[in-house]
Amino acid sequence: MSSDFETYEQDFGTVTAELTNKIGRIPKLGGEEKTQLVLNVDKQLEEVRELLEQMDLEVREIPVQSRAMYNSRLKSYKQEVEKLEKDFKRSRIAYSDEVRNDLLGDDVGSSENQLIKLREERAHLLDNTERLERSSRRLEAGYQIAVETEQVGQEILSNLHTDREKIQRARERLRETDANLGKSSRILTGMLRRIIQNRVLVFVLGAFILLTIILAIYFNLRGH
After folding, report:
1. What is the Cα–Cα distance from 169 to 173, expressed in whole angstroms?
2. Residues 128-186 pLDDT 10s
């Protein structure tokens, strides 16, 4: 698992290096060229987020005793991506001196108005950016809670499955005990019946012997 994590790390380093270079170039461009570069950076940022998700999944599969180190590295990568996203948002509304001069032109009054307009738009975009970041953090926190809840649910289901197996084994042992008790009861009943039969037989034999002795004495006395 750690080898997969390190592979994702290498891809992450390569892509973030390219992003840093491209984000630095955005303010120096204008028009269609800037639009294309912005789209390209946005696509690569999505790739970086997917790499972070893959690394996060890999960390969850790493043994607990080694997980802390990888969690620390993953946290630093997430912070790096957050910084790249902020730099990207600023670069989209920033202009180099050359581009700014092209936009403002030669007319001073028009230049001042456009400059004020650009500042207002920049402030508005920054405000929207902050809102999006707060929403993103809330979504990430909600996702984390959902993942933890899923893990707790899986543990509960596992415990319930284990308890169910224990209950089933206890029921099987109870059925075996009931069967053994029934068998023992039948054996004891049979033994008791034979004991009673033997006692009755002894009583009958005793009575018969006693009657025989009495009759023998009687006929003996009568013969004399």
Report:
1. 6
2. 666 777 666 777 766 777 777 777 777 787 788 888 888 888 888 888 888 888 888 88
User: SS3 of 106, please?
Assistant: coil
Q: What is the dihedral of CA 97, 98, 99, 102, to 10 degrees?
A: 120
- Number of CB atoms found within 10 A of residue 23's CB: 23
Alpha helix (H) residue ranges in the chain: 2-25, 31-61, 64-93, 97-104, 108-223
Residue 27, SS3 per DSSP: helix
* Amino acid (one-letter) located at 199: R
Q: What is the pTM of this model?
A: 0.45
Q: How far apart are CA 76 and CA 79, in angstroms?
A: 5
What does the block give as tokens for 13? 């380093």
Own/partner contacts of 25-28, CB < 8 Å, gap of 24 or more, are: 26/88, 26/91, 26/92, 26/94, 27/91, 27/94, 27/95, 27/96, 27/99, 28/96, 28/98, 28/99
Q: Residues 45, 19: contact at Cβ < 8 Å?
A: yes
Low-confidence residues in the chain, pLDDT < 50: 96-100, 103-104, 106-109
